[in-house]
Amino acid sequence: MVWRTILIDNRGYVLSLPNLLEDQLENRLEARLEDRPEDRPEDRLEDRPEDSQHGQRWVIKDLLAASRQHSATATLEKQEGQDVIAGLCAEAKSLPPKYFYDARGSELFDQISELSEYYPTRTEVAILKQSADAIAHTTGPCQIIELGSGSATKARILLSAYEAANHPLRYVPIDVSGTALKESVQQLLQEYPTLSVQGLVSTYELALTQIASQPPNSQIPTRLICFLGSTIGNFKPHEYEQFLAKVSAALRPGDYFLLGIDLQKEVSLLEAAYNDSLGVTAEFNLNMLRHLNHRFEGNFNLSNFSHSAIYNAQKHQIEMYIESLVSQTVELKSLSYTAHFATQEKLLSEVSRKFNLSETTQQLAAYQLPVLKTFTDEKQWFGLLLCQRSAATAGITEEM
Ligand code: AVJ
């Protein structure tokens, strides 16, 4: 299968040529940017539905590459690594969890999800299998948009239910790992002969902005945004609120939101899930440093760091740390940044919040995302909430 990568900028302009090889992207894109005619209406993405006009069933757009090129003020890496510098500069060091997910990190996460101690994936998959038909029946035909699609294991459960319900199959996977995205799309297209796919290599932020600006698809106007796996638990409280506001703004009244949340439970179960006996979580955690080495010409020596994870009961969250075993200095060359670590200094690499069903249900309603149906397992370990975007209430401006 020949891959066709299309790049679009923030305003939805197509920048690249078909059949671009990934390692050539940056140079080619720069060249294209220079000879790009200003604001040609025929280049608008919305006017080029990939299925009907080009006879294609898929398109993958790299919003990250496109947005990086957008800023003329800083070098590509400087722009991109600002969050890394900010995290390492802080009194209490931290790094954004999105840096877990290079190709290796996505692979390691798949391994985590199969560990005996790591109950969330298995539990959510079981709930999804039981509820997928009800979800398909409730939403009717819709575009399935998934934030953080990874290897799309859970999407398959939904797609099969929509297929069984004779709904048209339209999937919009979004992931920061281009490799994971391409591999999963390639597989899905083979498994579902009628499926059409629009993949986005993107952060959630950028993707939600893009989704908010898309006019309704004439064939399948209803959208279902899926955010599974309790990845929402990675957000700090203010980021969580901003995120719900963005989802709400991206959806039109009548659209759906399917949210997976890991529920509060016994501490021993939680801590075991993030300190597995095979050490896969430890490897996943430290892989972030390898990713930073690769991405920003860093010299983190992984054997000088170790993994730890504890449950913070006050904040109802797992906190995962990378601890420095020695006093050391690490340089990230392409960011022109040097960080010092003291012996036993801890860097927070992830928080994984654990939720309360009724509290979360109330919060969703406050963002015009009232819960229509709640699905859970018999132990109440994990919750799957199907919400429907309501019409704006008095005092809140409708943006669509
Ligand atoms: C993918 C964010 C849901 O928080 O449980 C697994 C990531 N980190 N083991 C989680 C993770 C360590 C996972 N999420």
UniProtKB/TrEMBL annotation:
InterPro entries: EgtD, EgtD_Methyltrsf_superfamily, MeTrfase_dom, SAM-dependent_MTases_sf. It comes from Phormidesmis priestleyi Ana. One of its GO terms (biological process) is methylation. It holds the Pfam family Methyltransf_33. Residues 32-54 are annotated as: Disordered. Residues 82-388 form the Histidine-specific methyltransferase SAM-dependent domain. The gene is egtD. GO terms for molecular function: methyltransferase activity. This is Dimethylhistidine N-methyltransferase EgtD. The keyword Transferase applies. Gene3D superfamilies: Vaccinia Virus protein VP39. The lineage of its organism: Bacteria, Bacillati, Cyanobacteriota, Cyanophyceae, Leptolyngbyales. Keywords: Methyltransferase, Transferase.
